[in-house]
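Teaching assistant here, posting this on the class forum so everyone can see the example we discussed in section. The complex has four components, and the goal was to see what a joint structure prediction looks like when all of them are supplied at once.
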Amino acid sequence: MNMTDMKHSRQYKAENTVIKIGNLKLGNGGFLLAAGPCAIESANQYATIAQKVKQAGANVIRGSIFKPRSSPYSFQGLGHDGLRLIRDLGDEMDILVETEVMDPRDVKEVSRFVDILRVGARNMQNFDLLKELAKLDMPIILKRGMSATYQEWLMAAEYLMVNGNDQIILCERGIRTFEPALRNTLDLAGVAYLKHQTHLPIIVDPSHATGKRNLILPASKAAIAAGTDGLIIEVHHDPEHALCDGAQSLLPSQFNDLVTEIQPYLTIEKKHIHRKGDL
Amino acid sequence: MNMTDMKHSRQYKAENTVIKIGNLKLGNGGFLLAAGPCAIESANQYATIAQKVKQAGANVIRGSIFKPRSSPYSFQGLGHDGLRLIRDLGDEMDILVETEVMDPRDVKEVSRFVDILRVGARNMQNFDLLKELAKLDMPIILKRGMSATYQEWLMAAEYLMVNGNDQIILCERGIRTFEPALRNTLDLAGVAYLKHQTHLPIIVDPSHATGKRNLILPASKAAIAAGTDGLIIEVHHDPEHALCDGAQSLLPSQFNDLVTEIQPYLTIEKKHIHRKGDL
Amino acid sequence: MNMTDMKHSRQYKAENTVIKIGNLKLGNGGFLLAAGPCAIESANQYATIAQKVKQAGANVIRGSIFKPRSSPYSFQGLGHDGLRLIRDLGDEMDILVETEVMDPRDVKEVSRFVDILRVGARNMQNFDLLKELAKLDMPIILKRGMSATYQEWLMAAEYLMVNGNDQIILCERGIRTFEPALRNTLDLAGVAYLKHQTHLPIIVDPSHATGKRNLILPASKAAIAAGTDGLIIEVHHDPEHALCDGAQSLLPSQFNDLVTEIQPYLTIEKKHIHRKGDL
Amino acid sequence: MNMTDMKHSRQYKAENTVIKIGNLKLGNGGFLLAAGPCAIESANQYATIAQKVKQAGANVIRGSIFKPRSSPYSFQGLGHDGLRLIRDLGDEMDILVETEVMDPRDVKEVSRFVDILRVGARNMQNFDLLKELAKLDMPIILKRGMSATYQEWLMAAEYLMVNGNDQIILCERGIRTFEPALRNTLDLAGVAYLKHQTHLPIIVDPSHATGKRNLILPASKAAIAAGTDGLIIEVHHDPEHALCDGAQSLLPSQFNDLVTEIQPYLTIEKKHIHRKGDL
């Protein structure tokens, strides 16, 4: 099969795919700035963090209720009980909300409670999940598998596209390498490479890529310079007691600073953080 | 949590777990020798290959009907229609049969048609799938993820065990490295390492590990010397026209030679290829 | 041994090491912009490229005469005959010049012809070479080994420092990973990480990191945003006929554009490309 | 350049290269069993270990006097003072001796004191060193670089061969991967692959490959089954106080057991451990 027949390919479609989510137009200068806790722990924790990151400038609230944890003894998330929390918060705060979905049986239900669905790195090649997500008319964040090649990642997007959903947002989150000091190795040249290969928008997750709070800012600036269409960042108001990923979560005040510091880079790259209420 | 509380650990349980499948006693000197096509393409192809590998000495027939292919344009397997084929062949030939299951919704149904279920590398951390498999009273082959650490792999087994199924057979199938000449890098020292860490049996898949027909024999001999409890090998009577993995499939005659050539190694390691009809 | 006793460590010395080379002050806002051919092929080729990159804004001319090629049949460089070419060009054009040294026997001689010496990735742990370089009072660019951890890289710098030379410029040039599409994986979060760990300046080589001409610009912008103190970029006026690394070499006009396009990023990061003739 | 013109290639020379060292004929059923300390610490330590491993069955005594240590603060070896120790021991015990050489300036001198020279993983692409070694009429053990591809490794051998020395013994010692539990990932399928690609003999270093004493035996057995022409194993009579690599060093009694346990595998593979005094 030729690249000209692959739906994700620039040879198939030269111009950027533009994904509209509220007033956010990804792929056309719009910048997705998602922030929030790794895991939603309670209504209170979720709302506290969401208010602060919205105020700082986030246009999407991130937060997981289904957690793919390496250990069965780790916190597994609130599960289905969290769905109503997410939708209510999105409505009350008038902001876009997203969450991860892991199980093909949950796709239809979860899709009714959020604005964007996320596929985690471990599920990039969970093809039955992808086929369910392909049935939706809804944006999907497709994270790169921890050792997925660009080709495999793009073919995972192709599974979604060929089965009916072309609102795909790729998300670079670092790859697994021999380096033990950081959680993963963030592949920003890959982001630039993919912008040539595909018309789909690409965002970057500096939190999982680095695993270290003090690297989120430089990694975010570098990601913008490399051409990313957005960032998804973990924020927690009390990282010491976070049930998941405390060491890589920014404090709300740090996220606030980050939004200020990335602005000059967004200006150069002509990217705008539109919010739901914007014209 | 301490290792002494982890169900997969030697510190939790010192003696080998023995898994009985027919007359095969894995973990107690029994050797699992699974062979067959990568994908079941037709009743005829499956039966042809199965007869030959049984005759050569295999005690389990491998064959997939659900295929996790990187490209949506590749052959995806016969799907549910293949289930009856598998069960009928197992019954008619009086041999154990196995297949891969990918979707948690399929687990219960598929389990009724086979003797052993297999979790592929891409699904090692598909935790919803693992939780469904944990409900079964049936052996599960759990392949190592393509860049999974030993720790992650053992914790995937722990997901099965803590949720109720301790008939877990680990399967080393190579890891992804920088080396482009072979499909993966077979990690046989890892097999030896895991025999110290866990009481669970471990088998090796030299076909996916190497991707090359002429390396299957030396890799199999080395795997036995490293302590493997079994092998799972792709065989095809017409590899040039195989719909999947032709380049790494042995011809039936080559598989026949392999069984002969590994015998001295099995003898040294005190492993026996019991068949279903054996006493 | 404690980190407080390691000479490369921020705990040993909190403030940035400032390396003065001509008017360039690395580590104090100065930005090293080295450009030139991978290999010096002839006096004419070298001068042609050098003039163009100097005009575009480079403050150091790069160019190798000793080439560590994987194959003995590839062009091995001009060798010692090239030394005079380098020094003459530096003097005539009044610009800083650098080159790679591979053999401990060559260190003293080569050092007399250039302003900066470079240690290639393959020689990062060539400890006898490092010990010779430690005897010089001269800046050394120390490239990261292709699969070196940060710790190993910093300890290679320590070999230089403990033996007497603390004018060390680290150079990130990508690491070897499983991804086949690019030559290496550029590790920009690592650059940010190292700025926390060490007081030594760090530069980035986007040419070897990516291996692709059209990624040099975004990788360079991202490197600046991540905190790099400089860039070393391959440029060739006739890449089709280059004896080495043509596919990753910029045309002089492309390098000219790059200098223009990185300027806004340098401004934000308060970095300046001082030239030899500057006050 | 075609493979048929590459001196290392099976297409250039179909039959095995046979390297004669004393009575050992590598490549013709002879098996190199080198054992000894990582580093020679003193005449007494070296002789103590050498006597025990010779008695157990080793036909070569290994031991380094030049140590490429990641840290400049680690024990760097006895250096030139150790040369006489090595030669004297070889003569007195009538056994073959080998050591590592790191610096091209040392090659000629060191070559006069040993029977086999060894190039370490960090120097596989130290081309100036290789060119010096190429001038010798003496066997060279060429270890695989820690992230070298087969192609790069074979081309390093080609550097030796094209410059005049074809007595090359490749040595697989594990590659660097993401797995943190073991020091490296031993690549035994690679050994089998290389036997097809090249006519040169290949040995295996299970000590550096695994970094763990209790994996040396299974790794050695597996290496023989995969087709290795030899093993090089670290042994120390007092590993707790070893100046280098204690955790991966066998006790002499364990080495003795190993020689017994590998014998049946050697018999199957028709390999013989000839000693210097053998007919």
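For the discussion questions: The domain at 3-11+33-268 of chain B is CATH 3.20.20.70 (TIM Barrel). DSSP finds nine helices and ten strands in chain B. Think about how each of these relates to the inputs above.
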